[in-house]
Amino acid sequence: MCGIVGVVGKPAKDIILSGLTNLEYRGYDSAGIYLNDLNGHEYLTKAVGRISNLKEKLTPDEEGLVGIGHTRWATHGKPTVDNAHPHFDETKRFYLVHNGVIENYAELKEKYLQGVKFHSDTDTEVVVQLIGKIARDKNLDGFSAFKEALKLVKGSYAFLLVDNTEPDHVFIAKNKSPMMLGIGDGFNIIASDAISVLDQTKTFVDLQDGDVGDITKDSYVIETIDGKKVDREPHVLNIDPNAASKGTYEFYMLKEIDEQPGVMRHISQDYLDDNNSTKVDPKIAAAVAESDRIYILAAGTSYRAGLVGKHLFEKYADIPVEVGLASEFGYHFPKLSKKPFFIFLTQSGETADSRVVLKQVNERHLPSLTMTNVEGSTLSREATYTMLLKAGPEIAVASTKAYTAQIAVQAVLAKAVGEKKNIQIAKDFDLKHQLALAAVGMQQLVDGKEKIDELAKKYLANTRNAFYIGRGIDYAVALEGALKLKEVSYIQTEGFAAAELKHGTIALIEKGTPVIALINDPATADLTRGNIREVESRGANVMVFAAKEFAQVGDDVVLPEIDYYLSPLLTIVPAQLLAYYASKNKGLDVDKPRNLAKSVTVE
Ligand code: M6R
């Protein structure tokens, strides 16, 4: 949520605009930029809506050797030009951009900023006004005033600050919001996400919570708020910059759906050896094997991947699993088992709701693992162990390849734990072969995308609502299929355990209501067919995605062969495509659905 890019030591405008464009996927509703040419000229420009609106407002002579830019996703105050960042203090000495939420902004305003004239409704402006006030009252230089202010601020933040009395510096601070420092030759760059500035540098410093920094074109000093120096070594990030580009695709979402066969192969190569044994850190397998219950915590799509993980861990690792929505769990901890092990599923590794739980897990000194797509992300650093999803950068707001990667990596861990416990079915579980089947099956399904486009055109073009139904593991996929469809097409869609419909929701089925039925579960395939007949007889337009062995003439998608426990890897593909085409055919911005952000760093 929100994106920040700062540059010092190089013409900053285009780098910032391109970086912000690369961060568009995080979601935003306004944008702004501050530039200083180090020759007495400074420029502040802001616009509501897209970055293209900001570009239109910028004149060619507005350039700077130092600059900070921001895309804002409104939390405090509406998306207006005044509320857009950068914000400035009363004397227009300090300019600040901020990603995060200041919890005590009202208190700070009341206590320290009486009589100060504000121009926005934001929590961020309170901070920059506070910095200005402290600098004036105590006659401090910018960096000292910044650190003094930070001692009073409570909340999450990634801040970039410019003091126009020493404009060749950018001051930074990080707490609970992502921020990386990129090291260049004669310049430095700061961004919410390394991917956004990979065309400038591949050398990065991972900043940690509590870090504040003074960045110039050829130096960086990182310290604590109390002024204690900390060492933060740069490292080279091994990411292919093309992985984050759209190539010939119109939307990232389709590119990422299409990439799933490759992701399965990548996971297989990295986590399984040629003899089908798992290559998982033995400490992780041992820690999970010692536990008497696994708690999987996540949000959104990751939570739904966790529901599939429950089936995998219970089957192959023989450990009971509880799956929780992080936002609920964090404030209502259940009675835990005697030897719990916590798994955090998170594509971004930054989700605030999940962090709340992890914090408490750490306070209780309990073991934890983050499965994430982002190396060095906050949840990865804060958990005991990390397993990477290896899905490559996921840019579209709607998560697709990270979901299937989460399922595959959970399968790897379930097998590793089962092997550690000497469980025969885990040893016999030919995951290498199954992931190969998944890759081939996914390819077959994405190759058949035109058929799904036709289904979207036929059944979803004019509907206001839709349902997914399934039993067993298909129920978990029904929940994810419904989330995908609703978030990108705005069709109100619910996922149901197929038999539950008749206990109330079937009242909503009328002529033309789309119902997508998923059939992979050997125990209930016939029963789900019965549920299909129930909705069909009430006028529903039913689309059936069925495993080859249960498929019947007339089914819309026949799912290629795979182990039942990994069937979600295939079942979800036509569901993702259906969501994609429903959105695209309506002319919507598939990659950036309204009101949504890629990385949800507020609770
Ligand atoms: O980065 P995370 O996996 O922790 O994010 C969790 C959810 O915010 C995310 O899955 C969200 O539901 C996506 N929009 C789903 O497509």
Automatic annotation (TrEMBL):
Its subcellular locations are: Cytoplasm
Matches recorded under PROSITE patterns: GATASE_TYPE_2, SIS
What reaction gets catalysed by this protein?
D-fructose 6-phosphate + L-glutamine = D-glucosamine 6-phosphate + L-glutamate
Can you give the residue ranges of the Glutamine amidotransferase type-2 domain? 2-218
GO terms of biological process kind = carbohydrate metabolic process; fructose 6-phosphate metabolic process; protein N-linked glycosylation; UDP-N-acetylglucosamine metabolic process
Q: What Gene3D superfamilies does this protein map onto?
A: Glucose-6-phosphate isomerase like protein, domain 1, Glutamine Phosphoribosylpyrophosphate, subunit 1, domain 1
The protein's UniProt keywords, in alphabetical order, are: Aminotransferase, Cytoplasm, Glutamine amidotransferase, Repeat, Transferase
**UniProt-listed InterPro entries:** GATase_2_dom, GFAT, GFAT_N, GlmS/AgaS_SIS, GlmS/FrlB_SIS, Ntn_hydrolases_N, SIS_dom, SIS_dom_sf
EC id:
2.6.1.16
Top class in the EC scheme: transferase
Q: Which GO terms describe its molecular function?
A: carbohydrate derivative binding; glutamine-fructose-6-phosphate transaminase (isomerizing) activity
SIS domain mapped to chain residues: 284-423, 455-593
Q: What are the catalytic residues? A: C2, K598
Residues of the signal sequence?
none
**Subunit and partners:** Homodimer.
Please explain the role this protein plays, according to its UniProt record.
Catalyzes the first step in hexosamine metabolism, converting fructose-6P into glucosamine-6P using glutamine as a nitrogen source.
Q: What is this protein called?
A: Glutamine--fructose-6-phosphate aminotransferase [isomerizing]
The source organism is Lactobacillus kefiranofaciens
Gene that produces this protein: glmS
